[in-house]
Specification:
single chain, 328 residues, Rossmann fold, 2 domains, seven-stranded parallel sheet, 11 helices, 14 strands
Length: 328
Amino acid sequence: MKKPKPFLLITGFLGAGKTTLLRSILHELNPRNIKANVILNDISNADVDVATLDPSLLSSVAPLAAGCACCESLEELVQLCRTASSGKGDLLIAELNGTADPLVLLETFTLLENQLTFFPRYQVGVIDARYWGKRDEFEILERRQLETAGFYYITHKNEVPHTQLKRVKESIRGASRNSREVNLQNLVDIINEEVRGSENKVFRARASLNSNSAISSEKKRLDDEAHKLSHRFTGCQFPLPDKVDDQRMQRLMHALPNWVLRAKALVNLVNKPECRWLFEKVGPELIQNKIPTYELPDTPSSLMCIGPKLAPDKLKKLIELEFGVSNN
């Protein structure tokens, strides 16, 4: 019988840093000669984030475009997992999009564990220290993305005061009492131990997912408030000129309204033609370090926006004000 592969599920709210953590994990596993099959879920165009992954660092990568992968695309996700179980990778890493409710997915893995031979199964919830507890009506959705996790990983810790970070950690522990904080090295060591078959299972007892401890029965409902919130988000995509000026692109991203909770733009820059570039914005904050991408050379330049109440006509006008009327 084929040995089960470890499975790591990465969850967290929009822009918390999930894909950045994924890239870091893949990079740190490379010297250990460990490669993962990766499933990358995004609400609209998952190919964009896939293009930012270094293909030499992984065994395979499969994009999954879906708002709530545990509902509308659950069957497709399960099939991708089945394919990964027989692939060449040493483990499976799946990143859910920032609006997804992971509860049903975890239940599915429990119910189909004879078919989806992944063990142990770990979940890490990614938390942005700047915004934890500040999601307003979507706070319960972010807590749902954490509460089933055995681990939590805090990003942007150096960008908040020490007193605020302390309050964030106390709040996280209250929201997920069975979780423990990890850093990148912890996660890589855990994966290395599982792949290499080490007998040192320090973390497994507390962090491995199971239907009895990680998921409480009163939360096994698809009609609860947190799950409904995951279905309120929509995504829309707009064409951009084939080549754009760096400053004008940054100006457009800054001009996006606050009700755009997440934005990504894949473009060719006039002054940096050596590759394509991914611009990102989380809420009101533009991520300053745009990411070079060498994949998807034929994918048209575009802007993708995600939010609970998008107004596509207003966004289109902003684009036209900056770049003129598109012929696409």
